[in-house]
Amino acid sequence: MHVHACAVAATAAFVGTAALPSPSSDARAGESGRATVVAHRGASAYAPENTLASIDKAAKLGFTWVENDVQRTRDGRLVVIHDDSLARTTNVEQVFPGRAPWKVKDFTAAEIARLDAGSWYSPAYAGARVPTLEQYMRRVEHNHEKLLLEIKNPELYPGIEQETVKLLANEGWLDRQHLGRLIVQSFSADSVRTVHALKPALTTAFLGKPPVTRLNEYARFTDLINPSYGSISADYVSAVHTHTGPHGGRLGVFAWTVDDAVTAWKVAGYRVDGIITNKPDVVRAALHAD
Ligand code: G3P
Ligand code: CA
């Protein structure tokens, strides 16, 4: 199944945008013509989500793209965790019993560093930590991975866009080579717009499904529209593809979160550019089943 007959041409056009630093060429389908597979929260079906173990697992399975969620501690450190509370994915209720509802924003980085973020998933991962974004970026680099970074709940963390961009710069992720391996996304259009204004060379993605009539507005600040797979159709994807993003390439679509072969096949048939999944091996097998 060739998901994108014109992917190579589209990618070439995208990368060829003159003086711009090279935004993520994988924001379009890969040269194979198949959708890019992104390991959601790392290979989170097989290791505790958003931990270093989960991105190690993705690398071990042969996947380069990983997704994460970034939030902020009470003392202003960026950390990688999905929920706004620490309760589901750590042992915070045991370590800090009097601190309900255990919001990430109410704990210092040192307190969070004491928590076990692996045992809830399996005893085999006891001792895994909630990574700081610095630790996480270094492991992504070490593993030669590429990152779809989500700014999660930005309304809770005023200024998180600036802080994220600053950290990425400090970690060396805003040079030309790294920009080709990085996408920043959010459910908040304001947040995506802010990231684009702060660092126009960054590839950005909006999480959601704007109406077709408003896609032209989104195309001013986002390179990708990343909707829930159940909310889209082939017509919607092709409507997105008619737009040109801020870097001169056509607007792309990464759909989430697809964990079974039948759905992967169906969504690939919509000609999406990427599929975000907890089970990247399952999706890869489906995409190659042609
Ligand atoms: O990357 C898409 C997906 O992460 C959006 O939903 O809730 O898993 O962050 P969520
Ligand atoms: Ca996410």
Word description of this protein:
Helix 11 (261-269) packs across helix 12. Residues 1-23 have low confidence and may be disordered. This protein is globular. It has an eight-stranded parallel β-barrel, surrounded by six helices. The chain is built from twelve helices and nine strands. The protein has a single domain (12-83, 131-288), classed as Phosphatidylinositol (PI) phosphodiesterase (TIM Barrel, Alpha-Beta Barrel). The termini are close together. It is α/β, with parallel strands linked by helices and 290 residues long. The chain binds SN-glycerol-3-phosphate (G3P) and calcium ion.
How does the SSE layout of this entry go?
Layout: H1 7-15, E1 36-39, H2 52-60, E2 65-72, E3 78-80, H3 92-95, H4 109-113, H5 133-142, E4 146-151, H6 160-170, H7 176-179, E5 182-186, H8 189-198, E6 203-207, H9 215-218, E7 224-226, H10 234-241, E8 252-255, H11 261-269, E9 274-277, H12 280-287
Parallel strand pairs: 1-2, 1-9, 2-4, 4-5, 5-6, 6-7, 7-8, 8-9
Antiparallel strand pairs: 2-3
Helix pairs in contact: 11-12
Q: Notable features of this structure?
A:
290 residues, alpha/beta, TIM Barrel, eight-stranded parallel β-barrel, 12 helices, disordered N terminus, binds SN-glycerol-3-phosphate, binds calcium ion
CATH architecture annotation:
Alpha-Beta Barrel
Question: What are the secondary-structure elements, in order, as H or E?
Answer: HEHEEHHHEHHEHEHEHEHEH
Beginning-to-end CA distance, first to last residue: 5 Å
Please bin the fraction of helical residues.
25-40%
Compute the number of strand runs. Answer: 9
Radius of gyration, rounded?
18 Å
Could you say how many structural domains there are in total? 1
CATH class: Alpha Beta
